[in-house]
Write a structure and sequence with these properties.
The chain is an alpha+beta fold and about 150 residues long. The chain is built from 2 helices and 4 strands. The chain has a 4-stranded antiparallel beta sheet with strand order 3-2-1-4, with no helix packed on it. Helix 1 packs across helix 2. The radius of gyration is 23 Å and the shape is elongated. The protein starts with a helix and ends in a 35-residue tail after the last strand. The mean pLDDT is about 80.
């Protein structure tokens, strides 16, 4: 099955010629595939150009950030929505954090291959913290088992 992006781009560029013969079709799809791959590669911008104002972006981590033996190797080669915490008045770089409430942050530019804007992100202004934060009551009256211990 052909990638729908390749077929749509080929039809937009070459119209009915895509259906001329299987050889022509394969050639046009191959050329369009090369063009789309080049465009996709060029779409990754250098991290030095990324906004550092809490604007969410999509970024791709390098494949060698953590050794494969590390419990954090799952971050290697991943796409993630991240945002930068900003540069403090004293010049301290807050680094990148995952744009989700997972508590993982402080990642340096060097961890990433590049970034792309999230074009349909509805918020144009940087997010600000509310004046008050309401924390819901959490109830856990069951004991937490130790590693290797089981409870029924």
């Amino acid at each position: 099955m052909t990638d729908p992006r390749i077929e749509a781009a080929a039809r937009a560029l070459f119209g009915d010629r895509v259906d001329a013969s299987s050889g022509t079709r394969e050639y046009l799809f191959e050329e369009v595939s090369k063009a789309l791959a080049a465009a996709d590669a060029a779409a990754w911008r250098p991290m030095s150009e990324a906004p550092k104002d809490r604007t969410p972006i999509i970024a791709k981590t390098r494949s060698d950030v953590f050794p494969e033996s590390s419990n954090r190797s799952g971050w290697n080669g991943r796409h993630a929505v991240i945002q930068h915490g900003g540069i403090l008045d004293d010049g301290f770089d807050m680094g990148w954090s995952v744009a989700a409430p997972v508590g993982y942050g402080g990642m340096p530019d060097g961890w990433f291959l590049g970034w792309q804007p999230i074009s349909d992100f509805p918020e144009k202004e940087p997010l600000s913290a509310p004046e008050t934060i309401t924390i819901p009551e959490v109830r856990n009256d069951r004991p937490i088992p130790e590693i290797g211990e089981t409870h029924s």
